[in-house]
Specification:
The chain is an alpha+beta fold and about 325 residues long. The chain is built from 9 helices and 10 strands. The chain starts with 15 loop residues before the first helix and ends with a strand.
Length: about 325
């Protein structure tokens, strides 16, 4: 079907400028609406999925503009006009975020441009009028550029979507530190994410890889997990942990609820004693929901699980594994 696409004779009487303005205003309105009324996302992973849609989204926007232009006029300049209009929409979509709930981002605009290149490039490769006029090496270059742009635009969305679906299907297991997709649920949340390492020799049989976090004096954060938000059907949070130390070490477990209207949600906090011998720690969800400050945590809106060091423990190694609900 794409191979048969040719520049057809204009069939509409509406002037090109008016038609382009109408299409641009309509698409700008959709983009502004999506950013101003953006839904509250439950995790960094969900944010990554949303942000990764810039490339695929603008690939389709640019193709839609090109197809509309084909109805109104002939000529290969349609590709340039479509790219300029789509690029302008991308620029406006970033500018309107300045007073809105999100921040304007040059990287998002770059992703928009890559998506535009991918969309128009893929159409151009199969455009018969271009194939008839272009030299073979031109077509090879065009095809290579379109392939690279398509991969850059679409692969992140595929990977993050896979991670999000895998996280949902894995419940009640929150993190096992055995699966590739799990890095997307904790590896993007802070600069120094835990390493996946072989389980220490003193751990029970059956544990292959675990997370190793090294305490620092900067934030004290050892691990932060952003699970699926709805915990209503469960009654207990469990995980395995140990510390590479001759004495036990205290850590602070913190569980937060999603914010409401830009206001931070309540949090539950508890101190735990971590020993050198791997042990399973259990926290009743009734305690988590009832003892949170300043109000009870809604079990449908759990946001994150964080573990912090307590006191001066810089350089101490902590091990974690098998976060799950039951």
């Amino acid at each position: 079907m794409l191979a048969d696409m040719q520049n057809s004779e204009p069939s509409g009487s509406m002037p090109l400028v008016v038609a382009t303005v109408i299409v641009s205003i309509g698409m700008i309105a959709l983009v502004v609406l999506a950013h101003v009324h953006e839904p509250v996302m439950g995790s960094h992973l969900a944010d990554h999925v949303l942000n990764s849609l810039h490339g695929p989204g603008f690939a389709f926007v640019s193709v839609a503009i090109l197809l509309i232009l084909r109805v109104l006029r002939t000529g290969l300049s349609n590709y340039l006009i479509a790219a300029m209009v789509a690029g302008f929409i991308g620029l406006v979509s970033e500018v309107v975020q300045i007073p809105g709930p999100r921040d304007a981002s040059a990287s998002d605009l770059l992703a928009d441009l890559v998506g535009i290149t991918a969309g128009l490039g893929c159409i151009a490769v199969f455009d018969r009028s271009i194939r008839q006029k272009a030299k073979r090496w031109h077509l090879v270059g065009l095809g290579t550029a379109a392939t690279i742009a398509t991969a850059v635009a679409f692969v992140p969305t595929v990977l993050y979507a896979y991670a999000a679906v895998s996280q949902w299907r894995a419940m009640p297991v929150i993190l096992s530190f055995e699966q590739f997709w799990e890095r997307a649920t904790y590896g993007q949340n802070w600069p120094d994410a835990p390493d996946m390492v072989p389980a220490p020799a003193n751990w029970p049989p059956g544990y292959v890889t675990v997370a190793r976090s090294v305490a620092t004096d900067e934030s004290g954060l050892l691990l932060r997990v952003e699970p699926r938000n709805d915990w209503r059907e469960f009654h207990e949070l469990m995980f395995m942990s140990s510390v590479n130390s001759d004495t036990s070490q205290q850590v602070r477990l913190e569980i937060r609820e999603l914010p409401r209207d830009g206001i931070a949600g309540p949090k539950y906090s508890e101190h735990l004693e971590i020993d050198s011998t791997a042990s399973r720690y259990r926290i009743a969800l009734s305690d988590i929901t009832a003892m949170a400050i300043p109000r009870a945590i809604d079990p449908e809106r759990v946001s994150s699980i964080s573990i912090y060091t307590v006191g001066e423990t810089a350089g101490t190694e902590y091990y974690f594994d098998d976060f799950r609900l039951q």
